[in-house]
TrEMBL record, chain A:
Its cofactor is [4Fe-4S] cluster. One of its GO terms (molecular function) is 3-isopropylmalate dehydratase activity. This is 3-isopropylmalate dehydratase large subunit. It catalyses: (2R,3S)-3-isopropylmalate = (2S)-2-isopropylmalate. Residues 8-458 form the Aconitase/3-isopropylmalate dehydratase large subunit alpha/beta/alpha domain. InterPro entries: 3-IsopropMal_deHydase_lsu (IPR004430), Acnase/IPM_dHydase_lsu_aba_1/3 (IPR015931), Acoase/IPM_deHydtase_lsu_aba (IPR001030), Aconitase_4Fe-4S_BS (IPR018136), Aconitase_4Fe-4S_dom (IPR036008), IPM_dehydratase_rel_enz (IPR050067), IPMI_cat (IPR033941). Keywords: 4Fe-4S, Amino-acid biosynthesis, Branched-chain amino acid biosynthesis, Iron, Iron-sulfur, Leucine biosynthesis, Lyase, Metal-binding. Its EC number is 4.2.1.33. The keyword Kinase does not apply. SUPFAM superfamilies: Aconitase iron-sulfur domain.
TrEMBL record, chain B:
Gene3D superfamilies: Aconitase, domain 4. This is 3-isopropylmalate dehydratase. It comes from Chelativorans composti. Pathway: Amino-acid biosynthesis; L-leucine biosynthesis; L-leucine from 3-methyl-2-oxobutanoate: step 2/4. Pfam families: Aconitase_C.
Length: 468, 207
């Protein structure tokens, strides 16, 4: 038999049929829903008088447009409230499992899904959100879809898709002290570019990946869409199984044993070929930060903003000029001279317990710099609860941070948590696009430790200089 | 719902920037709108409009030459980022039916197909030639059955659609209907085998 990659195995085991034109009808095991990408999907069902094909294959939660100052929907604004209420009404009518806002399990889809064991190795999982790559950390074929596809998945549990090419990203060696999964992800996007993996499914391999916790693997897979990859994967292993065991929706007893036996067959076979291979020398990576308006605009924290006059390619020169102009930065400016107004710690990239711990380690016994606002938004109610059990919230509150309720919050600025024009933010989220955190807002993507260091110093700073 | 697309004749506006993401095409704050009406007003809102709400005269779509264009020529990486289908709805609502570029965001490309928005991929050299023609205000003629884009009768690029894609575009077929009408027996049959192989993926009631 020809050796297969993990991606091949996941794909092949879900092909319902080849359609003879290069496309495939692919079975979709699971579907995560949130309030923003599904209203029109339900309209498509209702217009045809359809019910979901398998209600139990779906799980819905409000996250994008929910208030994080309270659990009172109106605090996020009338439109946001209407959107969440629409989701509640839609799932009620269609019998779709739902986690309400005041439930401790509520959280960002990509934090909540794994926590509940809804995400499992070997499955296909769709969600109307591009960061569905996150679930690939478990060896699940997770991919983002649009609202039409959300409707099709509910109606038919299948999609017409074209197979991606495969790219292996091999992280060679182990990261240095104080270098995080976020730094590796930023380094990768800068190496291959924001379109570098467009059309590809990435599989991450190497010692560094094997040594990573599930949370770190999720961070890396999460950011893969910023390099253009619709799918990112890590082969499941003992770390995966230990993390999933006894999760509420994970299989139990005999079925668990059967499932694990199957999951052990998933890793890429010896000798399987990828369409492209990239090797990243992990030991040489330092804390990284973005300076511009694309996630590929990355420099080391001790580096400088680029100088367009020193760029030969005219197209790139023009792009850098525009980005610097939007970001309000001087060519060649030192990163450590950049002052921030706001710090946001949270999102599906870095809103998990280990991320909050990393931030707390820096913030412990320190104060947020005067004039800087720092908000900390846990990725889920369970993350919040666990953080409070460890007393992390006290560290944050004593430092002068705001400790919020879970949700997407300032990652996407749909719930009233947003930057004002010209404001500059050190953010642990995943997108520094123009206006992403509020019209005219300026985003620098960083790790949780670096965000915390920015809160304390009021500037972008290498967090290693501040370790407790 | 999907408007059929067989031929388009129009000037082509050029948006040459690299990596125009779906947040730029359709800013997130408008995602709170539930109805699909009026999405054209949100298209490129932060670039097309000035902070005071007036049109930004520097934005290509606001130039007299490009009023009512139905074709866009875009830089690499157009449609990267968020999966929001609103980016496609807004383009179509604005009147854009064809986008020519070197490559597109994967999810955006999937959404485009479902809404009768045709994406044409060309190599960088052809791309540069098309841009210079578009900038002089030449009329482009896109013919889906023929798979050609011509200017003054001269072919500037070709593209290939599969038979099912072509039928979907020219008839305005909706993918959900196609799947429901033709694929359900296959899906049900697969489901049975899948359940026997991975029973843990199905609820007790389903097993
Ligand atoms: S946290 Fe940000 S990136 Fe993640 S799902 Fe929410 S809005 Fe999307």
């Amino acid at each position: 038999m020809t050796p297969k990659t993990l991606y091949d195995k996941l794909w092949d085991s879900h092909v319902i049929r080849e359609r003879g034109d290069g496309t495939v009808l692919l079975y979709v095991d699971r579907h995560l829903l949130h309030e923003v990408s599904t209203p029109q999907s339900f309209v498509a069902l209702d217009r045809r008088g359809l019910c979901p094909h398998r209600p139990a294959a779906n799980l819905a939660v409000p996250d994008h447009a929910v208030p994080t100052r309270s659990r009172n929907l109106a605090d996020a604004g009338a439109l946001a409230k209407a959107q969440t209420e629409r989701l509640m009404e839609n799932v009620r009518r269609h019998g779709i499992p739902f986690i309400p806002l005041d439930d401790v399990r509520q959280g960002i889809v990509h934090v909540m899904g794994p926590e509940q064991g809804f995400t499992l190795p070997g499955i296909t999982l769709a969600c109307g959100d591009s960061h569905t790559t996150t679930h690939g950390a478990f060896g699940a074929l997770g991919f983002g879809v649009g609202a039409s596809e959300c409707g099709i998945v509910m109606a038919a549990q299948a999609l017409v898709l074209r197979k991606s090419k495969t790219m292996r990203v091999h992280f060679e060696g182990l990261p240095g002290e104080g270098v995080t999964a976020k730094d590796l992800a930023l380094a990768l996007v800068s190496t291959i570019g924001a379109n570098g993996a467009s059309g590809y499914a990435i599989e991450y391999t190497g010692e560094a990946v094997r040594a990573m916790s599930m949370e770190e693997r999720m961070t890396i897979c999460n950011m893969s869409i910023e390099a253009g990859a619709r799918v990112a994967l890590v082969a499941p292993d003992e770390t995966t199984f230990a993390w999933l065991k006894d999760r509420p929706m994970a299989p139990k007893g005999e079925l668990w044993d059967k499932a694990v036996a199957y999951w052990r067959t998933l890793p890429t076979d010896e000798g399987a070929r990828y369409d492209r291979e990239v090797v990243i020398d992990v030991a040489s990576i330092t804390p990284h930060v973005t300076w511009g308006t694309s996630p590929e605009d990355v420099v080391p924290a001790d580096g400088h903003v680029p100088d367009p006059e020193r760029i030969d390619d005219p197209v790139r020169r023009q792009r850098v000029r525009k980005a610097l102009d939007y970001m309000g930065l001087r060519p060649g400016q030192k990163i450590s001279d950049i002052e921030v107004d706001m710090v946001f710690i949270g999102s599906c990239t870095n809103g998990r317990l280990s991320d909050l711990r990393a931030a707390a380690e820096v913030l412990k016994g320190r104060k947020v710099k005067e004039g800087v606002r720092a908000i900390i938004v846990p990725g889920s109610g369970l993350v919040k609860q666990a953080a409070e059990e460890e007393g992390l919230h006290e560290i944050f509150l004593q430092a002068g941070c705001e400790w919020r309720e879970p949700g997407c919050s300032m990652c996407v600025a749909m719930n009233g948590d947003m930057l004002q024009p010209g404001m500059r933010c050190a953010s642990t989220s995943n997108r520094n696009f123009e206006g992403r955190q509020g019209k005219g807002g300026r985003t620098h993507l960083v790790s949780p430790a670096m965000a915390a260091a920015a809160a304390v110093t009021g500037r972008l700073a290498d967090p290693r200089s501040l370790r407790n | 719902m999907v408007e059929p697309l067989k031929q388009v004749r129009s000037r082509a506006a050029v948006l040459p920037d690299q990596n125009i993401d779906t947040d730029v095409i359709f800013p997130a704050r408008f995602l709170l709108l539930i109805d699909r009406e009026g999405m054209d007003k949100c298209l490129f809102a932060d670039r097309r409009l000035l902070p005071n709400g007036e049109e930004n005269p520097d934005f290509p779509l606001n130039r007299d030459l490009y009023r009512d264009v139905r074709i866009l020529v875009v830089g690499p990486g157009f449609g990267c980022g968020s999966s929001r289908e609103q980016a496609v709805w807004a383009l179509v609502d604005y009147g854009i039916r064809v986008v020519i570029g070197t490559d597109f965001g994967d999810i955006f490309a999937g959404n485009a197909k479902k809404n009768g928005l045709l994406l044409i991929r060309v190599d960088p050299e052809t791309h540069a030639q098309i841009i210079s023609k578009a900038e002089t205000g030449e009329f482009f003629y896109v013919d889906l059955p023929a798979g050609t884009v011509t200017v003054n009768g001269e072919t500037v690029c070709t593209f290939q659609l599969t038979e099912s894609e072509l039928h979907a575009y020219i008839n305005g077929w909706d993918e959900m209907d196609i799947i429901l009408n033709t694929e359900m027996p296959h899906i049900l049959e697969f489901e049975k085998t899948h359940m026997s192989r991975q029973p843990w993926l199905f609820s007790e009631a389903e097993r």
